[in-house]
Amino acid sequence: VQLVESGGGSVEAGGSLRLSCTAFGYTFSRYCMCWFRQAPGKEREGVAGIDTDGSTRYADSVKGRFTISKDNAKDTLYLQMNSLKPEDSAMYYCAALRPGRPWLSPLKVDQYDYWGQGTQVTVS
Prior knowledge:
Structural class: mainly beta
Order of helices and strands: EEEEEEEEEEE
Distance between the termini: 34 Å
Number of strands: 11
Oligomer: single chain
Largest sheet: 7 strands, mixed
Shape: globular
Low-confidence stretches: none
Strand content: over 45%
Mean pLDDT: 95
Radius of gyration: 13 Å
């Protein structure tokens, strides 16, 4: 299982970015997935998660601004980020839960089994 993020970059406050996470080596549609972020000196936090049936969970800090989605045909997870704020600056990671495990804590780090290497988002 391999996850590869892309789409990060630098943007001004109020701008938008769309992150992508492409999966390799497994049946993408069977996995619950999540976007996390980690700023320097801070713990990794869950941003948005999506179940195999498409149901979603969001952190309060991003509700109404970020949208998680997936394209099973392309084995790709997305995070559309609008109205970006400087406090959204962080390394963003995608993560996947191994099938068969319950999706009990969608935004918790220890819920997930597989991780990408991250993509940097900087908002100024």
